[in-house]
Structure formats: C-alpha cells, structure tokens
C-alpha cells in the first residue's frame, strides 16, 4: 500500500518540483546518470507504508554507506549505450562482408559517422558489462540479504552463454572491425533486453550509492520503524535540511498526546518546525537518511499539510473558503483512514478573531477524538489553548519562545512545553518606527 500524499503537501514541504537546489529532492539527487535520477525520482514520489519495503531500502543504503562505494561506471557512456541499444533496426546490423577498402578509408578520414556511432555504443556496452561483472564480484562476498536478489538477477544475466567471453576480456580500449561486428550481433540482436535490464539495475545502484553518500556527507541517520501496535513518533535532534544552521529539536507524540497545539510569535519558527516534522516523516517512509540524531516512528497511511494555502481566485474562493474546503477534505480522509498525519499552520486566519477562536476550538476538539491520527496545529489564538485544556486530555501544548534583549526579540527555535505568553508585536512595530513615519 502506498503512503498517501497530495499536491498541496508536496508544495508546502517543497519536496520536489521547486527551483533546483530549493527542494528536498535536489538535496538527495546526487546521482551520476539520468537513469539513476529517474529511479530516485520514482522513489521520491511513492513513499511506502509497509515495514518490509522500508527496511529493505534502509538496509541497502546502509550497506553502501558502510562500504563507502563510489559509482563504479563511466557515467558519460550511458547516453551512448542507451541510444545504441534503442536502435534494433536489422538494416543497421554490421556485417563482416562490409569490411571493404571504402569503409576503411571512410573510417580513416572520419566520414563514416553511422559506424562511429555504433562503435562507440558497442565499446561503451562492453566496458559497462566488464565493470558490472567486476563490481558484482566485489560486493557479492559480503552482501546483505536485501542485496542478494539484485545480485542474483545480475549474475544470472552475466552467466548467459553469449556473455561467457567476458571471463577472458580484461579491458576494452579499441576493437577490431571483426570484434565490433561480433559484439554488435550479441548486444543488439541476441541479448538486447537482458542488457537493458542490467542498465536498469545499474541505475538502481546509482540511486542507492547517491543516497549513501548524502547520508555520509551530511551525517544523516536512518529512522527506525516502531514494532508495537501503538502509534508513536519520537525524534531527537531533528532539523530542516534546507535551513542554514538549523536548530535541532526533540519531540515525542503518542496516542496519549496525539494532538499538538503549537504557539509562538511570528518568526519564532512555528512553520519551520511543522515542515521539519513533516519532512522527516516523509523521508522515513521512503527509507531515506534523515536529518536527525535518531527517529522512531510508527508507519502511517498518509499525510496532509496546509501551510502555504493560497486563495483560489479562478474558482472564486477567498482564503477563508479555501481553508474550509481544505479542512473538509482532510476531515473526510480522517473519517475513513487511520494513521494519518495532519499539519495545519494557523487555522482560520482568513476570518475574524471571534469566528476563528470558536472554529479552532470546535475543530481541534473534534479532531482530538481521532486517536489513531496525529495532528499538529499552530495558532496565534492563544485563548483557544486554555479552553481546549478543559475539554481534552490528549493535547500536547508546545511553543517556540521569544527572548527580549532590550527592545530586540531573539528566537531560540527550541520547542518548549506550554503555551506562549509572548506579546511582542507592538515592540517590533515600534522598532521599525512605523508610527513615527506616519506622524511625519
């Protein structure tokens, strides 16, 4: 079963599709080949919700991280190989009878472009097979159980009768015309599909090795799947991987405190914390290395965030109505699914304070009855927290503090328990001399 997510959540968290270098995918995409990047993208778009699948991926990445492998192929040759193998037109098949004086002269003066293109593809394919054979022998002796199926598949293809010559070839820098013809018949017209499967498996290695190197270079760790039936998240030192000098936070959420009421001043870090928590959950469900000291999590069925919700002017929606429509969709999902993570940044910011207060209390009170789901909801309506304390016992109250140094606010970005009492809005307005400007 796939982990459910929607476009609003992808955009909120900048998971993929933002400007290059400004999304989470770009941080992890250190692949060497276009095929490897596509494999990584497919992983990224389809997080898993099965323990076995998540653990299998974690263990493969861990293996390559522990071994310190680099991508063992000439990545510049892959485009030539793929183009070469895509041409299976019989009319282009090389033939020994074509080894004429005219062809030799054309080859010498560089006039035979078609032959040169085929030659480069054949030589690239041969070197790829030799490198792959060497790589498999390097890792086969101590591969973990999760890699064995990949390795067995590769070895079964390399053991094909038409590839037995690989055992006698040590390297390939230059091929005679006769060798070129022989290899062309094998590669393009005898075992073409098998070689294409080997390419796809090599792209898998590219993606796994890239992830291993990201884990090593950034000192990321791997989340551990909670084995119990209870629903739990425990993150230590978790931080946002795209925020410079990000501050790590500890947070624990379980079934006895499955809802977080989050407060704090503007710029205190509420949105960043919610994005950090959500990104960590998403990465954990892909089996990817995460920016944290440690993480224990129960597998979820999906996640919905509402952090940067825009008006929908094309449909005539105000911001408030867009909020209500989004809330309705989430409510419908929570009603029919367990183990969903729901993150809302400032409920009902598009309406008046009285309605926002009453609606925040009513909706959070209703959400709190869904003990098998997890909620983080931020708000500036501090009074709603006091009311919710009287209504529900499974709400965790967290805030991000502001420390005043004279008239200058400073932010710790460290989560603390409780409800904020910070009221420094007027101080900031006065610091910017707004009233003085207007008086002039």
Describe this structure in words.
With 440 residues, this protein is α/β, with parallel strands linked by helices. It is 49% helix and 14% strand. It contains 16 helices and 14 strands. It has helices spanning 7-13, 24-28, 34-45, 51-67, 78-86, 101-109, 113-140, 145-158, 177-189, 192-218, 270-286, 319-336, 353-367, 382-391, 425-431, 434-439; strands at 221-222, 224-225, 232-238, 249-254, 259-264, 289-290, 294-297, 302-306, 340-345, 374-378, 395-400, 402-405, 408-411, 416-417. The strands form 4 sheets. It has a 6-stranded mixed sheet, sandwiched between helices. Strands 2-7-3-4 form a 4-stranded mixed sheet. The chain has a two-stranded antiparallel ribbon with strand order 1-6. Strand 12 and strand 13 (408-411) form a beta hairpin. Helix 3 packs across helix 10 (192-218) and helix 7 (113-140) packs across helix 9 (177-189). It is elongated and about 90 Å long.
Question: Count the helices. How many?
Answer: 16
Mean pLDDT: 88
> What proportion of the residues is helical, as a percent range?
40-55%
- The global form is elongated
**Biggest sheet: strand arrangement:** 8-9-10-5-11-14
DSSP strand count: 14
